[in-house]
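Example record used in the benchmark description.
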Amino acid sequence: MSGTLYGIGIGPGDPDLITLKAVRILQQVDLVVFPAPEHGPSLARSIAAPHLPGRCAEFAMRIPMTAARFPPDHVYDDAARRIGAELDAGRSVAALCEGDPFFYGSFAYLFARLAGSHRVEVIPGVSSLTACAARLGTPLAARNDVLTVIPAPLADTVIARQLEDTDAAAIVKLGRHFARIRALLVREGLDSRSAYVEHATMGTERLIPLARVEAATVPYFSMILFHRRGQAWQ
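Model output (structure tokens):
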């Protein structure tokens, strides 16, 4: 009998935000797979570390994070072959994914390669979207609000149009795009209704007024939340 691949959402950074189901599965599987940069430790593994039993095998998917090479098909192809062989041998595998596996999650690339031929179960996790809202004390939406998730790498014209057509928005994947996004919000007169957070729930978390953020230091794990009414309850 073939094994099961579990795509495990491990939440936004605080190990206490991993679900009970995820912890139970992590302590039972034969192999834990996690994304990692080409060099250095894995953030995903560090989040899950308090819940790993220490007896199972581990496999780091070394992923180049340059935009021009993402997603790197050869990395996911190789990982899928290795995971598939483990599953065919009857072993169970947990693939860690920061946040939620199906909300901009890297696990989607493994799912696409393996779900058609193997048993796969997705364990949802606390997403960065809800974590950022909680840490900022800013409800995402209320009543019949439309909430839009906007990737920062999109063109200014696209982002401006999306903001014009929505009640609330989360602008994600800021990083090097922050200065341009802030300028757009100022230009559109939306900056006073926007809030910024980076590394939500992590030890390096920072909540900073938009105008005071140093653009050169903004990490990938940052987000701007916008609401047209200022706050959803208004």
